[in-house]
Amino acid sequence: YAALTNEHFLVRMDSKEAVIYGPRVLELLEAARLKLCEKYGLQLAERTTVEIFASQKDFGVRTFGMPDNPGYLGVCFGSVVTANSPAANKGNSVNWEAVLWHEFCHVITLTLTKNKMPRWLSEGISVYEERQASPAWGQVMNPRYREMILGDELTPVGDLSSAFLTAKSDLHLQFAYYESSLVVQFLVEKFGVEKLRKILADLATGKPINQAIVAHTAPLEKVEKDFEAYAKDLATKLAPGMDFEKPRGMAGPLGMRPSNGTVIIPPAAPDGQPLLDPVKLHPKNFYVLSQQAKKLMAEKKFAQAKEPLQKLIENYPTHTGGDSALWLLAQVHRELKETSQERTVLTKLAALDADAVDAYLRLMELAATTKDWLVVAENARRYLAVNPLVAQPHRWLARASEELKQPPEAIAAYQTVLLLDPPDPADVHFRLAKLFNATDAKSAKQHVLMALEEAPRFREAHELLLKLAPTEKPSPTGTKPTIKP
């Protein structure tokens, strides 16, 4: 493992990974330190150690003392943070920048409270600060959370620690994180961030969390009542034009279970087939429209699939994920070769989803065809925040930097591409040679020779080598060299 250091951080990570994205790690951590230390009024006295493991088993042993602890992305021990690298998250798209921001926020809150704070408040502040840092980070309201909140699955503020200790499932544990972040959001919006800082200061003295909250906000009963109303208001405001009543599984795709518990089943013909189109029966139902769109796509009726997808987006424009209407509609437009519309939809999705690497990659491809290099660079950086260990985003960033007349950035990106075993190293060396040509003739010649080593018949590389070769003065015409015995 390599060590990267500056005044405030010591980062240990796989030596190969350190060369590829180590500087981005330090840059991200510095940005988090500047913003969060100022916000919470803290000057960290000691350097923070961040250890990033390329193997999930190594992360598990270092963090928990045993190798098999899946599900954890990062853990904070006061001034020490451990985290999985993108290499350890195989098969999962995880925004490592958001993870490190979240974990460094724990460094702030644990330091302020001298490690005397409940898990729900620490996690709640970290998830809340993710959302503050980027609208695409952190957990947000979704149909499942909406159902849980309106279905009386909220844990009272005074008992939130139990939500982590007695979670019935992974979903309930994730909901505990989300609810905790909503409590923090509620406290900041209603009472101000200064009150939150005072609560943390009280915890440092050993005061219990509920007493600290009451001391700086309102009686606990009122806080709990007001928070419940706040959370339910947010839930009802999620796509207010959308019907979220869930289909009844045993009744087939058309049976619906409304909130009063009765079941509405469309009238059926004698042969048992429904007489009415489910979309006509429930024209704004989230689940019916989603199912209808997927069914039409599976049948390759892409033009018809646009209608339910557009209804979903019109009423619920912030839904993200692999089965979101935005992603599905982008696929429909692609199948129909409606490139402009596809790009518009993907642009909306990319701004909302921090892990949508497929959307980022497709946007880079589309933007490159119209020479919109700023968009290419933007989505390359988004991709690198999820997985910097593949060549494609570095290659696109290098190409965009070339076109934007940013040679240092292009050189750095192409050099990183070479570390990732690209399929066309000759072209990468050739582009580096051209970039170095203006300022570093030695490096330019080295890279053009390496390009020719990979591809001996690379004509453009030969032409560049001739331009780089020093010219020798020819002998005067007709003059013979003197030969001495």
Order of helices and strands: EEHEHEEHHHHHHHHHHHHHHHHHHHH
Main sheet: strand order: 1-2-3-5-4
Average pLDDT metric: 90
Major sheet description: 5 strands, mixed
Low-confidence stretches: 250-270
Strand content: under 5%
Can you walk through the features of this model?
With 485 residues, the chain is mainly α. The chain is 59% helix and 5% strand. It is built from 22 helices and five strands. Strands 1-2-3-5-4 form a five-stranded mixed sheet. The protein is flat, with a radius of gyration of 29 Å. About 4% of the residues have low confidence.
Secondary structure layout:
Layout (H helix, E strand, L loop, with lengths): L1 E4 L3 E5 L1 H26 L7 E6 L2 H9 L9 E4 L2 E5 L11 H18 L5 H15 L9 H8 L9 H6 L4 H22 L1 H12 L4 H8 L3 H17 L41 H4 L4 H13 L3 H14 L9 H11 L3 H14 L4 H13 L3 H12 L6 H13 L3 H13 L5 H12 L4 H14 L4 H10 L17
Parallel strand pairs: 2-3, 3-5
Antiparallel strand pairs: 1-2, 4-5
Task: Give a summary of the structure in a few sentences.
The chain is mostly helical. Helix content is 59%, strand content 5%. The chain is flat.
Task: Please supply descriptive tags for the structure shown above.
flat; five-stranded mixed sheet; 485 residues; mainly alpha
